[in-house]
Specification:
There is one protein chain. The radius of gyration is 24 Å and the shape is globular. It starts with 18 loop residues before the first helix and ends in an 11-residue tail after the last helix. Helix 4 runs parallel beside helix 8 and helix 5 runs antiparallel to helix 7. With about 500 residues, the protein is α+β, with helices and mostly antiparallel strands. It is about 45% helix and about 15% strand. It binds flavin-adenine dinucleotide (FAD) and iron/sulfur cluster. The site of iron/sulfur cluster has 12 residues, from helix 5 and helix 16.
Amino acid sequence: MGKSATPGAGEELPAIRTGAEYIESLRGRKLRVFLLGEEVEEPVDHPIIRPSINAVAATYDLAANDPELASAMSPYTGERINRFLHVAESAEDLVMQNKMQRRLGQLTGTCFQRCVGMDALNALHSVTFDIDAANDTGYHARFKNFVAHMQRRGFVIGGAMTDVKGDRSKAPHEQDDPDLYVHVSKRDDEGVYIRGAKAHQTGCINSHWLIVMPTLRLGENDRDYAIVAALPVDAEGITYIYGRQSCDTRALEDGDIDAGNAQFSGQEAMVVFDDVFIPWEHVFMDGEVEFAAPLVERFTCYHRRSYVCKSGVGDALIGAAATIAEYNGVERASHIKDKLVEMAHLNETIYSTGISSSHEAEQMKSGVYICNDLLANVCKHHVTKIPYEIGRLAQDLAGGIMVTAPSQKDLEHPEIGELVRKYLKGKTDVSTEDRLRIVRLIENMTLGRNAVGYLTESMHGAGSPQAQRIQIARQMQLEKKKSLAKKLAGIDGGKNAEHD
Ligand SMILES: Cc1cc2nc3c(=O)[nH]c(=O)nc-3n(C[C@H](O)[C@H](O)[C@H](O)COP(=O)(O)OP(=O)(O)OC[C@H]3O[C@@H](n4cnc5c(N)ncnc54)[C@H](O)[C@@H]3O)c2cc1C
Ligand code: SF4
């Protein structure tokens, strides 16, 4: 309940450029993090948390190793910056975001956590501009200063939109407990104080800053809930309660086989704000309820086509399925080949809808480019289904061993290890250990830790399926389609089809 870190602190320090520098930047921050009922001393060294930090570190290493793909020139700083901090100046910038996301999905096999912040920056560029144009406020200039600071330091930004929401049939101001949506609890000359909690926050503990945003359309009585602001992750008054992931405690065991993907994972936590102070300098909306819906729609427009990340993760899963088929000696069977073709076809369907949304981008009044909303929603709606089908096919090819395999400890046991190696062998020239490693990876991605990112996040992240159907319904131009049909059928009402 005190004042947060000095705005702009550390401006003079060099930008974080490599994965190793990023990991070091997270140390010693004294965050209040709870995991499995215990307060975490240093998240960086916690075996359950570390794989999620490694996944974010991969975004820095990719920018260092492949700058064309994962970095961009900033008009704010005049320097090359990480693409996750770049505000899109062309359709090509949005296309490059998608290419980078697919590559990172391939490299990590999980959620690499930085897209929510990237998509929030792009959405806020036009929203702050439009609020200023309507109300003569000064949000856009503040926002651009903030972006420049993030770029100079090379920070990770978490995007905090989803409230815990209580009774979903009620508006924020109608809830029995006002804190079920994040809101302004107090204002003074220096800034605002916020209260409430955000749920399912991807990469929040691994970020340097958070941007809080409203999660839904707001009405006149919800003014205190119309708050958009940026705050450092270590601001006083924040508590993080870490989300459990399926099989997460395997990361506490010795060995790296049973985890399936020991190096990388995603991260979600609930973030609780106990009257946390934010200076005016970092407030980008306060009370402009009429701009909550445009913000949510523009953010989800960017974010729903960001889900091409799943096509990168899908590439790794398809590779795992093809590998286990080889290890089992069935790779030439026609139904196996056909299933792999089906998986590739489905995976490219996600990619093609996402990247076409980026190609079809248009410029907003503020100058930022925004992707095509209809295609972005089609992309995300595919993502609510396709990974489940790819996962089902991967499990088909993996065989039952995926869920009945003994542990690494059994494999390495002085007495029974030999039995495990003898009886769980596939093809002669493939070691039993390699066969177990690949089925554990498939387990990890379809039932374990990274099924959170590949499956359930695909369902609910960036909005549950119904949210996309609403947007598709709004934009499907049914009247125009009816006129086209009537014209072809020679019905009177179809005469003007081409002018609709
Ligand atoms: C792994 C993961 C990572 C995520 N990361 C982030 C993040 O980084 N930042 C962020 O802000 N959010 C994040 N989200 C949140 C995501 O946007 C939400 O999960 C999504 O918007 C759905 O909200 P919910 O989970 O509260 O579902 P619920 O609201 O509980 O929905 C459950 C069901 O009820 C339906 N429903 C809900 N409300 C209504 C209503 N009023 N009328 C009719 N039906 C309704 C839904 O359509 C759905 O079918 C993440 C989610 C997941 C799973
Ligand atoms: S789910 Fe995909 S789009 Fe969202 S943050 Fe993770 S990697 Fe990025």
